[in-house]
Design goal:
By secondary structure, the chain is of the alpha+beta class. The protein has eight helices and 13 strands. The mean pLDDT is 94.
Length: 330
């Protein structure tokens, strides 16, 4: 068995062989092993968060990750920034006829390792195969279930609250752009793809925590512009306080990108009371994923919209991204 055949999606012998030899090799939760039409899962309470996402990233393998790792991190992070503790995932995989089994196994192994590192269990899965040329190798859909520990809503936000970034912005978008080999640029930039539940869960105990979001497609600028629309409040961030890697900034200048609009897959934006912001940053910086955490701005009732205060004292409006600079970044 070296390549995916149409029969691997038939539901028959080849499907079972693929499940047994590839998927169950790396997905070994008790919930999945019976291979029934539905999995039985255990929840401690009835306050449940549910999210789903699909992944079509190109290329499938990139510095710092791959589509498998990304599919776990993206869904885990959506739950974590919503104030939930991730517990279970379902994995749906669409494969192109002829896709190498070895590459599939690398992706499935990555899913298994990342889910274990994030402390989540794969409880259900599905596989379909389409004709050659009808799919770009692999597409993945993940659904995540978590238990709500700290409900977070934008109407909790007040003027004077602080805006916090958990780390450098624009890493993932830059890594994907360079991995496509469309530019003759050599760089050590890697995707920041990582599960954030270990970083963010300790913050659930802090009273001043108001709201969180992971700035994926559209980047930090789009998230802050949408937040202003949701709350009717102004959001101001300061260019000299926003953490951006120097190589990311340099490459963005070369290619005409803006790091504030580039995707991130291992960072969060946090709104917290001014009184608790310093404590939150201190907690974040103790974690390996939060060493570069910083307070980057504040919430205001004096204006509406999102804006960037530049290093030279100017002002630039931040709006929702209109056109995707880098399609298929997740």
């Amino acid at each position: 068995m070296k390549k995916i055949e149409i029969g691997h999606g038939s539901g028959g012998r080849l499907t079972r062989e693929l499940i047994q030899k590839v998927f169950l090799k790396y997905f070994n939760s008790e919930e999945l092993k019976p291979l029934e039409d539905a999995a039985y899962i255990r929840l401690k309470n009835h306050n449940t968060a549910l999210t789903t996402d699909s992944y079509v990233v190109r290329p499938l393998f990139f510095p710092g990750g791959d589509i498998g790792k990304l599919s776990v991190c993206g869904t885990v992070n959506d739950l974590a920034v919503s104030g939930a503790v991730p517990g279970y995932l379902s994995i749906g995989i669409i494969l192109e006829e002829g896709f190498p089994i070895g590459s599939l196994e690398d992706i499935v192994k990555s899913i298994g390792e990342t889910s274990r590192n994030a402390g989540v269990r794969i409880a259900a899965g599905d596989t379909k195969v389409v004709e050659k040329g009808k799919c770009d190798g692999v597409y993945i859909n993940t659904t995540g279930i978590g238990e709500i520990a700290r409900p977070l809503f934008p109407d909790n936000i007040s003027p004077g609250d602080a805006v916090i970034a958990t780390g450098t912005l624009g890493d993932h978008g830059t890594a994907i752009a360079l991995a496509r080999d469309e530019f003759a640029i050599k760089s050590r930039v890697e995707s920041d793809c990582a599960p954030l539940n270990g970083l963010l869960t300790p913050l659930f105990e802090i009273e001043g925590l108001k709201w969180m979001r992971d700035p994926t497609r559209g980047g930090a600028a789009t998230v802050l512009a949408e937040l202003s629309d949701l709350t009717g409040l102004g959001v101001e961030i300061f260019e000299d306080k926003v953490p951006v890697r120097e190589d990311v900034r340099f490459i963005s200048d070369m290619l005409g990108y803006d790091p504030l609009y580039l995707a991130n897959e291992g960072k969060a934006l946090i709104i917290a009371s001014d009184e608790s912001a310093g404590k939150i940053v201190g907690i974040l910086r103790k974690h390996s994923l939060g060493h570069n955490a910083a307070i980057i701005g504040n919430i205001s009732s004096k204006f509406k919209g999102a804006r960037l205060r530049t290093r030279i004292g100017g002002e630039r409006l931040l709006d929702v991204l209109e056109e995707d600079m880098l399609p298929r970044i997740c």
